[in-house]
């Protein structure tokens, strides 16, 4: 008994050490963001004399870009969920020989490199006047949001008992009304998860930001970081502070999706 | 399934008028069902179907800067393909793509498997630690690139400072500035990014292996390495093959990390098919040649995707 307690304690210690190694770069990012400005990285292992100069500079130089990223990501979430949710429901509940074809199409779409989409969208946007525009980037980012949202929402909706919607249908509700009134509220957790991931994909997007904007104006924060890195880096603390600010959604997602995973497990157990 | 049950219920319990209008209502229902999927179908066609077709067409055209002014894109047959394939950089980009893909996946998988096996032994805080491990995978790639740029910085980066400090190396290693080590450094960063995904999938695969198998194996003397070899690995094969194929499909098209870390340099040491395709299209504005390269990229991942689809089908069947 005590022997196994000791062994489990040793495992925990090893686990913590593994995590320290794996997350060291994340720690280093935070540490470097709190250092005084300069073009060399003289930071010690601890930010003993922390300064927020990096964050002040980051917010003044990249504040607009952070807002741009926020708007694009929010737009991507709304558009992706609006398009993906009814489709996920159809793929999970309607019986049709097209279901497996649709799933196959989604899987194949995952192999298509972003650069292929960027090539084609650039030429199309150039004609449509969508280059350097927020709607243009929202639509492009839906290419990662929609397929993922369909897959994750469908896997949840597969577990919905048909009797749920049936009851409403007997009361005379149309298919769409039943979907809005019953399926959507009950899918709340998976909608949140799909939404958070769509947000994160769009927030992290660099390729479309790089290729579908040609001049200032609309500049997501990922592009801002890239331009910081472009030449000799002048202010590491500002670069790292921007990186930290850009990492916040990932950390939020990690906490929120964890909650969803727990909710899903409980839902499955209770049935 | 749902549909069949619904129809039967309405038929059995529905009053007479409802039954008479069933034909029309049925058609209306089919239309509603179509409206459920129509937006997604249109989006998939616009965001995936159109780009693939457009790339195929562009790769057969002289589609360059001039095209944007005159609208002219003369057909040139396979000339774009011969141009990119005979380019001096092509073979290097191919080799780099292969090294990058194989190197990344091999280490991500082996380290991921080791960590998954480790976390599979239950111990206090194991679940929390495992979920925190996901962070590198969730960070925007350009954020990871920026962070690693600062760590790998030649003169003042923490890696070189630590290694010289403890006497492993005498002179700072130019991680990202030397053609001989840049690719290794880039692969290393990509391994770091991919480990969490591998751990998560392999861990879920391990969790599905019934404990009875190990109990039965123990009676037959299968413990430790033998248990891994005869019980764990065979039961993990389906997950592992899916994971490896997904890894290839995702890794082969990686662009953000390389652009953020080295931009394909130094001296083209980290150019891959993806970075080459980007440069030809968006730096040189030779969209025809860029499209030709990206089509080669699609063709390669398609070969692997066939393996992937076959292995998922097998996984589902099992």
TrEMBL record, chain A:
Parts of the chain that traverse the membrane: 12-30, 66-91, 98-122, 134-153, 174-201, 236-257
Location within or outside the cell: Cell membrane
SUPFAM superfamilies associated with the record: MetI-like
Topology relative to the membrane: Multi-pass membrane protein
Keyword Ligase recorded: no
Pfam families: BPD_transp_1
Alphabetically ordered keywords of this record: Cell membrane, Membrane, Transmembrane, Transmembrane helix, Transport
One GO BP annotation of this record: transmembrane transport
Domain ABC transmembrane type-1 intervals: 66-257
GO cellular component: plasma membrane
Domain of life: Bacteria
Any coiled-coil regions, as ranges: none
Family membership: Belongs to the binding-protein-dependent transport system permease family.
UniProt-recorded name of the protein: Carbohydrate ABC transporter permease
Organism: Kribbella turkmenica
Automatic annotation (TrEMBL), chain B:
Gene3D superfamilies reported for this sequence: MetI-like
Bilayer topology annotation: Multi-pass membrane protein
Cross-referenced SUPFAM superfamilies: MetI-like
Keyword Cell membrane: yes
Domain of life: Bacteria
The keyword NADP is annotated on this UniProt entry: no
Disordered as annotated region, ranges: 1-26
Primary location group: membrane
Localization (cell): Cell membrane
Keywords: Cell membrane, Membrane, Transmembrane, Transmembrane helix, Transport
Residues that span the membrane, as ranges: 34-53, 98-119, 131-151, 181-206, 227-252, 290-309
GO biological process per UniProt: transmembrane transport
Listed Polar residues bias regions: 1-12
CDD domains on file: TM_PBP2
Signal peptide start and end residues: none
GO terms for cellular component: plasma membrane
Domain ABC transmembrane type-1: 94-308
Family: Belongs to the binding-protein-dependent transport system permease family.
Protein name: Sugar ABC transporter permease
Organism, scientific name: Kribbella turkmenica
Lineage per the UniProt record: Bacteria, Bacillati, Actinomycetota, Actinomycetes, Propionibacteriales
